[in-house]
Amino acid sequence: MALHELVDDFAAAHLCPTVAWGVVTDGELIECHSPDTVYRIASMTKSFTCAAVLALRDEGVLSLDLPVSEYAPELAAVRGPLDSPPITLRHLMSMQAGLATDDPWADRHLDISASDIDTIYAAAPAFAAVTGTTYEYSNLGFGMIGRVVQRATGMRVQQHISERFLSPLGMHRSTWVEPSHTDWARPFRVQDGASVPDPHHPIGDGEIAPMGGLWTTVRDLARWVTFLNAANGHSASHHEVLSAASRREMQMVHTHIGRSVLGGRNGTAGYGFGVRTFDDDELGMNLAHSGGVPGYGTNMRWLHHGRFTANVGAIALANTTYAPTAHLTMQMLASVAPQLTRRTVDTTLLVERARQLVALIDDWSD
Q1: Checking DSSP bridges between strand 19-25 and strand 276-280, what pairing results, if any?
Q2: Cα 336 to Cα 6: distance, rounded to the nearest angstrom
């Protein structure tokens, strides 16, 4: 099925007024629609936050394995049940802190103030699991990451992201606040089987924004997807913004989630640092993250550059609350995959060593 048909069918099925989308290959949008219209990308922001933390780690400013309370003493009250270890940045970035999943609440409190979130920290938030033992998705944890960065550097993580990534990578349509221009998708929701404008004004920038506050476009995200995937494969490209090693670290499986079905495809899901992993039974590893807040449902996904000769990704941004665009991007990649060239490996040395081993065994003498 053609990409345009896939997107049109998705929009009709989920009552999306608009869907901006694109397929990026080696840094170029080969097919797209409305690539410069701004949408709120919600939890897709988490990959940017984790990249900022890793950049600071690489510079020796932060450690992933020290208790977060050593940087921000006000976080000491956030402690897991039983004999949980102290929470670290590694726990928070990989969704292993054990904090109870909080999506509906966090999505509506992006603009929470520092004093209000301090009250939440002091009250000891609820946990669903012992720290470090399992996957449990937490947005509050990314608010904690933001606090650690601010305490360690004197600068909000939002500013770090803007200065270290958005500007250098040419993501000039990406902001932390509602666009001041008119080319942005207004939020909608589904009510009584119809798409209606969301009556609430989009929430502003605040203490939980590091988990989901960014506004951006398909074209800007194409740059981000290309940047991350360029670290994979046999000829990883260097970039002064963030090392290839740290970008690969983001895309490794740090937390196992389990078997899953996505876009009608079977695979094993996991979580890296602000990046979801999905090891597809046919396509192999692909990396992604979704985003959902009132009025928006978004996703970016890319095929691991190590398996194919091209760096390929898909992006879909819809202005309908929690539109399941993860299924759409998976279907988009599955649609273009048959046209991709799989990477081949020179096995000459392997074959020679195998022959030598067989010869050794055939002529074995103790």
Answers
A1: unpaired
A2: 12
